[in-house]
Amino acid sequence: MALGDFVAFFMFVRMVVQPFRVAGMIVNLFQRAAVASDRLHDVFDLEPEIQDNPQPSAPRMISGKIVLKNLCYQYPGSHAKVLHNISLDICKGETIAIMGRVGAGKTTLLKQLVRLIDPAPGSIYIDGIDVRDYPLAQLRVQVAMVPQDPFLFAQPLKDNLTYDDPNRTLDEIWQAAASADLKSTIESFPDQLNTLVGERGVTLSGGQKQRATLARGFIRHAPVLILDDCFSAVDTETEEHILSELKRLRQHQTTILVSHRVSTTRHADRIIVLDEGQILEMGSHDDLIIASGYYAELERVQREGAEDEAFAQARGAR
Amino acid sequence: MQPNTPKRDYAMFDADISGAVLNLSLLRRLLHWLKPYKMSLFISGILVLVASTLQVLLPMIISLLAIDHILRGTADADTADFGLIELNTWLAQSLGWHPLLAACLLYGIVQIVSAITGHAHRMTLISAVIKGLRDLRLDLFTHLETRPSSFYDRVAVGRVMTRVVNDVEALFELLRGLGALIGEFVPFFVALTVMFAIDAELTLILLLVLPVLGVATYYFRSLTRHLFRQVRQTLSALNQNLQENLAGLQVVQLSDRQTYNLDRYTQINESNRDYELRSARVETFYGAFTDSLSHAAIGVIIWYAAGQVADLSMTLGEMVLFTQFIGMLFHPVVVLGEQTNILFRAMASGERIFQAMDWDEKIHEPLIPVKLPVRLAGEVRFNHVNFSYDVGTAVLKDVSFTIAPGEKLAIVGPTGSGKSTLIRLLSRFYDFADDQIYLDGLDLNHIHSHDLRRRVGVVLQDFHIFSGSIYDNIALGNPNISMDRAVQAAKTVNADAFIQNLPRGYDTVLTERGNNLSQGQRQLLAFARVLAADPEILVLDEATANIDTETELLIQEALLRLTQGRTSILIAHRLQTIQEADRVLVLQDGKVAEIGTHQELLDLQGLYYTLHNLQFQDYDD
């Protein structure tokens, strides 16, 4: 063996050994990648549950007449029905208040109006057309819903208020803010509309968040506006102001709102009391008071305050 | 004792610290936490010296021993061989082996011992560092936990958490990186010494390459640092975008923003791809460059040594040794380049940690706290209280009133009138001047806050649930509150019924945000918590959230029992709470506007009358 071969041999040994060391690492990496790719495929394989009808109705302006025909709903995997045979005609321009205990089916009903969950075919019509036949984009632009949970993005307030359409004018923004009683709050921030919301910026109180989401709903002037329990963290005084604004702004437009307070619902054209997925009572404030049912009992209890006897009667009336 | 509150710069907790300078005082401060483990660090230092010296011996076995001495018999007697040749001759003789076989054995032994000492070095170093950082993290937590709530009013919790979690982690990287650098530079100097001993001229020529490599590495690193930062920023923008889109999915769909958001995501995604590609390009180029440089150096060695070997001033083995040492000479520079980014980032982390450690805002406690009697009567007196959070804007102005023992006082007033501030002062979340608030005639500033908080029970609007069982959440770790006492308290405030209905009763574990409880249930649980602690004075900020009527009745009844015979201050939002109070205090713009019974104030037809009519007209007309 020549000396040169010997030296070359020593140098080559490393090159021969290296691939085996790397191979060990690769096997490990390979296993992890296999798991990751399985999980990715699980996500890709999910079909969107709510999709546009392949033959959607032609684009049109919604006027705001809503008809529910025997609306039933049952969450997948659950045995109990959340809504039973709800039938209801809502006229254009009407203000409807929905009341009911936790779990009565209020939110489930509202979500179906904008197809956040899909109703059964032929159970919800807007302007005589099944909601399932509207292109989703069309439906959600014209039926504005403010959900229960006041979610704001970690972006400037302005971007949050104009989330549906970033091209809105400052005038529109301030008007919506004023209607939601948020104007003075915004004015108290040094950066006003450019105030960053969230951890890096200003932390808003529950009431302020709720008013911001209300403004986000008002700004859209949609033919149908749905407010899902949006006054819960707002004090009575502010609520009063917002409700009168609501009345003024939406005189000829349809509004549906959920509330626990009689002071809120009494302003509605019609009040619907839901209980265990069914309409228990329906009518104007005065009608329901005269009917002296559940609603009247609630009104009395909220007016007079706590008394064991009233509590018992409220139960009996159900 | 007028507390002297300096203007504090809370904004610095949001500021980005670049850490672009090597801060030695920072390292010195860090050493404080490593001091208890200096023995381990010392042993680790010895071990790294041994391991690196052995690493240098390995190529010498091949070149000087095997090639020069055994194969060619031309070993240069002047060249330092660390006694390798003698050791090998002895080994071969005592085993009766061929010297070449003995050299192989020697090589194996040195390799194994070097690997073992190297491993032991890393383990002792890392364990000392981990232990030191454990202590640091604990000290940091203790420090942050004892900051007053006024601190957390101003600083985002997420920012503070980053300091405890990420920044301490980054310091770990720093100390480990320093360890790695030592492991690189020790062989560097040993090899350099040997090389000088063999041929000073060639060594000097080779050293000329180092500045070239150093400058190239510097430029490469500043280029990649910029690119890596962009990669990180685009990545975190991607994360944030995704997180928001998923968390706010309902709003996204209701606002029909899917297309717009997808466009934004695409944009960020593409710029991320661009930066990734660019940094990959730079990275591969640098790899090729350093490889070429070391090959060029080998070329220089062979060209130079060819002449030397021919006239016998350098042996063949010495030439081979030089080529083997090239790696040891260049690698430290490459590693130094790799580590600098980590070092500087960790430097910034260290700075942030010490910034938090140095934050000395605290509630001033009395030097000699007064001893409180076993049971206070419960008289509370506000004596011309003036208070402002920031210099300038007064939140409370000359507020004076007295609550008799056992009295129930309702406080009403518009948002921002100073109601919550009254509560905060009474529970001493903030510092205020002496002679302002008295408890049974004792100045609040003379009572230690620990003693005070046992006597003043506070129910805030938002009931904080700790992860743990219902019982844990009632007792809050107070050993005096037995299960029986907790159940008794829950029964009194109407919470027992719903708790019994939970799957595991009082042992049901609550999630941190309490998602499994309704608003009303949380309120009842909060009552149970405060009742179980049985404070002499109750402070309650009534929740404004709407609760269904049945639960509302339970809450009102519970409140009645809770305040029975207990001095109570209630920030009231409900008419009934106000009517059941003994007196009502109306706050406006930080001043006491009116005080008296409900009926007295109505008769007065003042601010209370107006507020009352505005808020409760629906019920009273």
General description of the model:
The complex is a heterodimer of chains A (318) and B (621). Chain A is elongated. The model of chain A is unreliable at 306-318 (pLDDT under 50). Chain A is α/β, with parallel strands linked by helices. In chain A, the strands form two sheets. Chain A has a six-stranded mixed β-sheet with strand order 6-7-8-3-9-10, with helices on both faces. Chain A has a four-stranded antiparallel β-sheet with strand order 2-1-4-5, with helices on one face. Chain A starts with a helix and ends with a helix. Chain A has twelve helices and ten strands. Chain B has 621 residues and is of the alpha/beta class. Helices cover 64% and strands 9% of the residues of chain B. Chain B is built from 21 helices and twelve strands. Chain B has helices at residues 24-34, 38-72, 84-95, 99-145, 149-154, 157-198, 200-207, 209-247, 249-254, 258-310, 316-358, 419-426, 449-455, 470-475, 483-492, 496-501, 519-533, 549-563, 575-580, 598-604, 607-620, and strands at residues 380-387, 396-403, 408-412, 437-439, 442-443, 456-459, 468-469, 509-510, 537-541, 567-571, 583-588, 591-596. In chain B, the strands form three sheets. Chain B has a six-stranded mixed β-sheet with strand order 6-9-10-3-11-12, sandwiched between helices. In chain B, a hairpin with a 2-residue loop joins strand 11 (583-588) and strand 12 (591-596). In chain B, helix 6 (157-198) runs antiparallel to helix 11 and helix 8 (209-247) packs across helix 11 (316-358). Chain B is elongated and about 120 Å long. Chain B starts with 23 loop residues before the first helix and ends with a helix. The chains are: A alpha/beta (318), B alpha/beta (621).
